[in-house]
# Entry
Amino acid sequence: MIFPYIQFLFNPRLQLRDVDASTFLTELQLNRTYPSCGSDLSTWKVVAEIPFLDRALSLPLCRSFFIPHSWQHKNVFGMYKLLRRIPK
# Structure
């Protein structure tokens, strides 16, 4: 059985083809070298953002157990952003 999220990855009908035709865009911004659509502030406005734990850059022990007052400082976070296109 193929899980639904796996089907989404390989289904071209469900993937975004033209970012220029979109009004809203959700994006995960991590500390990586590739560019993001949300970095173009002349085209996109951030409507909402929430932190997201970056598994690749956080230590396994630190991300596995919640320890008050130190968990957030010892893990690395990216930002999930909801972007809205700025009308021209």
Q: What stands out?
A: The two ends are 46 Å apart (CA to CA). Residues 23 and 85 are 5 Å apart (CA to CA). The beta strands are 24-29, 44-53, 77-85.
